What does this fold into?
Amino acid sequence: MTTATVWQPLFERLMAEMDRRSSPDWQAPQVTLDPAIYQAPERFAAERQHLFARLPLCLGHADQLEPGSVLAFELCGVPILMARGRDGTFGVFLNVCRHRGARLVGEQGEVCRKQSLVCPYHGWAYRLDGSLAGVPRAEAFPDLDKGLRGLRRLPSTVRHGLVWAMLDPDAELPEMAAYLGELDRELEAIGIADHRFYRQHAVTRAANWKLIVDAFLEVYHVTRLHAGTIGPFFSDAVAVNDGVGRHVRALIAREDTPEILSLPPQQWSPQQHATLVHFVFPNSIFIYHPDYISHLGLFPNAADQTLFVHTMLIPEKPADEKAEAHWRRSFDLIDDGVFNREDLVICEQIQRGLKSGANDALIVGRLEHNLHRFHASIDAALP
Ligand code: FES
Ligand SMILES: [Fe+2]
It folds into this structure.
């Protein structure tokens, strides 16, 4: 499949949208959202059970872990351990010792090089493939079958260089190509698998996870909230949006998008000539900037508290100090300047505003129709 086959029809729709409002979103009815969906503990418990424990979640890019290293994170209250053996094989486990349950790897969110994993409590040792390697004073456990006491493995796979896992060890991982649907060939066309890990920043923010998804699904705010940062690169809220199963794709016009008219369609690039966004249900957002990719993973701890994990992927490892300085500046601008100081600040303000009772319904206009798509998919997934 050529690049043009994938992107040309989207760009044609985007050009039509720039000319005149031709997208079906302009026919959409105005909808409202109930503030309770962001606050009620029962609603949060249902989302945990029916979305976060039952669906594959993207935990990041495989390139973050060199062979022979591990990375521990607590995601949605579940202690997770990603491990990459020296042969390059990936495994995702519960970061819980099989003796009496102590946490195996203490460092959180930090890649650590390890030969083996030794529990700090009584020293049971595990290999990076999760198998139990050694038990001090083994004579005290005459009945122990070491083969049965490897780390609890979470269903996981790597597709497009991305690590997908289920937080429930008993859940069944779906076939990822089918799960991603049309987005599968787009991740392929973008070449995300060949990208390299540059940096990750994980931060806990006082906002419901869906408020953060909402913020990345609409472009109505981009030229306004981001007026002092990235706003000037964009047209005022011109995009083509599609529900792709439960996922969402948006191709967003930039000021220089009309330049494609002087290029053959094979050269139309969703990164160079527009901004492509993929939302992968339920909690991942991929933003394709002109020269790098941001992956955002949202992992709620409570109705009003979310771990926001931003991973920056770049086309190749920085070759020298100049390249390193370029990526460092890009990361700081987008992660700190835009996401943390602009989008996430607003999300936290909304969370507090919801509690005030000022709005008994939140109004979603036609430029924000993706929010309707997202919330309708959640409603359909909950009992
Ligand atoms: S709890 Fe890990 S060795 Fe005892
Ligand atoms: Fe934003």
In short: The pocket of FE2/S2 (inorganic) cluster (ligand 1) is lined by residues 97, 99-102, 119, 121-124 (CB under 6 Å).
